[in-house]
Specification:
Layout lengths: L1 H27 L4 H83 L1
Helix pairs in contact: 1-2
């Protein structure tokens, strides 16, 4: 689970870092103002696509994580059902043993009283 989360974080960081690096690189590059504005305009035009890619990546990661959480929940629920069933079975066995012990003690007391 944490490996997939780290991958999503890495991809998001890579995309944001790439965009920021491109902007900073253009601002400090030795170009004329007109050339820099042209490059910035092209970069700005590419931002919606970059944002869409990032959004898609985040949606995929969120979906995968929710599926993983659901699987973990189902696994936990299954283990809980098994534990409850075992507890009920143990309780019923204990009741049966207690009932048999009680009946046996009544029979023992009854036979003891019959002898006296």
């Amino acid at each position: 689970m944490s490996g997939g989360n780290r991958a999503g974080t890495f991809i998001s960081g890579l995309a944001i870092g790439t965009a920021l690096g491109a902007v900073v690189g253009m601002l400090i590059a030795p170009r004329t103002g007109k050339e820099t504005r042209k490059v910035l305009k092209k970069s700005a035009e590419a931002l919606p696509e970059l944002a869409e890619d990032l959004s898609t990546t985040l949606q995929i990661q969120a979906h995968r994580l929710s599926d993983e959480a659901l699987n973990n929940w189902e696994e936990t629920l299954s283990k809980l059902k098994v534990a409850i069933a075992a507890g009920i079975e143990a309780s019923q066995l204990e009741q049966t043993q207690a009932r048999n012990t009680y009946i046996q003690s009544i029979k023992t007391n009854s036979s003891f009283e019959d002898r006296n």
